[in-house]
Design a protein that fits this description.
By secondary structure, the chain is mainly alpha-helical. It has helices spanning 9-14, 27-35, 41-48, 60-69; strands at 18-20, 25-26. Helix 2 (27-35) crosses helix 3. The structure holds FE2/S2 (inorganic) cluster.
């Protein structure tokens, strides 16, 4: 079931980005889960451990949905984890 098309450089870089910030789950794991047969967010969460963090999946669910729609290929657009929100006191060090 694996997508054998070669990844672009941007897609390869995207695989190391964190999708589920609460649990530290990278895009590579989400993509692998989808390519291995996960068809819903719940199935991806079960396979990877994503989606049960403090935010209640409000940040990662939309990204996981997009990855599923994308057939398990990495997303090269910006993610919630890419935010450089200056109001976040934890990012100020
Ligand atoms: S980012 Fe995935 S549960 Fe919060």
């Amino acid at each position: 079931m694996s997508d054998n098309k070669k990844l672009t450089l941007e897609e390869i870089k995207a695989r190391i980005r964190v999708v589920c910030i609460c649990k530290g789950i990278k895009m590579s794991r989400i993509c692998d889960a989808v390519q291995n047969g996960a068809k819903t967010v719940e199935e991806v969460n079960k396979a990877t451990g994503s989606g049960n963090g403090g935010c209640g999946a409000t940040r990662c669910r939309p990204v996981i949905e997009q990855i599923i729609k994308n057939g398990g290929r990495p997303l090269t657009s910006s993610l919630p984890s890419d935010s450089t929100d200056d109001d976040d006191p934890e990012s100020a060090f």
